[in-house]
Write a structure and sequence with these properties.
Elements: E1 3-5, E2 12-14, E3 24-25, H1 26-32, H2 41-48, H3 60-76, E4 83-84, H4 86-90, H5 94-97, E5 109-110, E6 115-118, E7 125-134, H6 146-158, E8 163-170, H7 173-177, E9 189-195, E10 200-203, E11 206-209, H8 210-225, H9 239-246, H10 255-272, H11 277-299, E12 304-305, E13 308-318, H12 320-324, E14 335-345
Parallel strand pairs: 3-5, 7-8
Antiparallel strand pairs: 1-2, 4-6, 6-7, 8-9, 10-11, 12-13, 13-14
């Protein structure tokens, strides 16, 4: 997928808006509004546009959650009637819904709830149920963490419901080691019912109801996903995604020159700054730019760009392993070339022609 930096170098722009997208699921909902400390709007943009697809990695936490969920479902069934997982609820039609349990009319929203509580007919859904596991109850003292709250609430809204049940089990290290032996009870498992009308969250200085948060998510979709222009990225928070993106070259040919001009500008600002809290931020920004400049120049076999010069040092490298198999008389035979690069810049002002 072809891309380039925006003019201010704070956004990624696709050459063409994507024709296919990944859904804005419950797990992405809070993140797209900046309400998840573990993920960012930029990362959700990358995933929904399919520019970056992080590989799924099974961990002891995901393994424990998967094994314990059926045990939680059985435990909750003692309090709430007709608790059904997706396979039981959809029955023979499960394969049709396994990647998205919602009607296409809700797009771009979609996703997969953990379970539902149905009415006596076993068909009409009365409440969405979300199962979670955690290693500490501290984050649940005031209710479900925001990113879980918005996930369950989104699914409830799409089903036309006004509440969602959260079931959280708090695991010890031994529970993670042997999740199959975990037994949910009143001590290690809590059940919390949240009503959508009670959800009010702060986004960008505004306090929004859940309906407004829902609309805010649609704004995110229209402004970023459909246009192919990303939200502003953060070099530290979004590093994993940016590294993957930058492994392919930007599509605009003049991007290297743009980077060089911008880097020289920042370098001059640093040179003129007094010692202050802002100088570290500038230096960090310059380092990111210069690392990118150096990589592009190496990949493109360039010696100069604007005021940057790339110096190549070629040295002989002693190959000890090869020598171990032979003798000292053959020393020169096993010498190899090693190339290192040094990037320099010229900050001197050019004199105008008289």
């Amino acid at each position: 997928m072809n891309w380039h930096y925006s003019e201010d170098r704070k956004h990624i722009e696709l050459e063409q808006p994507p024709k296919q997208h990944k859904l804005l699921t419950g797990t992405r909902f809070a993140s797209c509004l900046g309400l998840n400390p573990y993920s960012s709007p930029f990362q959700i943009w990358c995933e929904c546009t399919k520019l970056v697809t992080p590989p799924y990695e099974e961990t002891m936490y995901t393994t424990a959650g998967r094994i314990i969920e059926p045990l939680q479902r059985e435990y909750v069934s003692k309090t709430f009637p007709n608790i059904k997982g997706p396979e039981e609820y959809f029955g023979n039609a499960y394969e049709m819904y396994r990647w998205n349990f919602f009607d296409d009319k809700f797009k771009p929203y979609g996703g997969l709830w953990d379970a539902v509580s149905t009415k006596s007919n076993g068909k009409d859904i009365a409440m969405v149920v979300e199962f979670k596991t955690a290693n500490s109850a501290a984050k649940w003292v005031d209710g479900p963490p925001i990113y879980y709250l918005m996930q369950g609430a989104l699914y409830a809204k799409m089903l036309g419901l006004d509440k969602v049940l959260f079931v959280a089990s708090f695991l010890s290290p031994m529970d993670y080691a042997h999740p199959e032996e975990f037994v949910p009870n009143e001590t290690n498992t809590t059940m919390i019912v949240k009503k959508l009308k009670d959800i009010v969250l702060e986004v960008d200085g505004e306090y929004l109801s859940f309906d407004e948060l829902y609309d805010k998510g649609l704004d995110f979709w229209n402004n970023y996903i459909l246009t192919g222009i990303s939200p502003e990225f953060d070099e530290k928070l979004d590093k994993e995604y940016l590294d993957i993106i930058r492994a392919s070259k930007p599509s605009n040919d003049n991007d290297l020159t743009t980077m060089c001009v911008e880097a020289i500008k920042i370098a001059k600002e640093i040179k003129s700054l007094e010692i202050s809290s802002g100088i570290k931020v500038k230096k960090d920004e310059l380092k990111v730019l210069e690392d990118a400049i150096k990589k592009v120049m190496i990949d493109s076999n360039l010696d100069r760009c604007d005021k940057y010069k790339l110096k190549r040092d070629v040295k002989l490298k002693f190959n000890e392993k090869a020598l171990e198999k032979d003798n000292k008389a053959l020393y020169n035979k096993y010498c190899e070339e090693s190339i290192s690069y040094t990037l320099s810049k010229d900050l001197k002002e050019e004199k105008e022609n008289e």
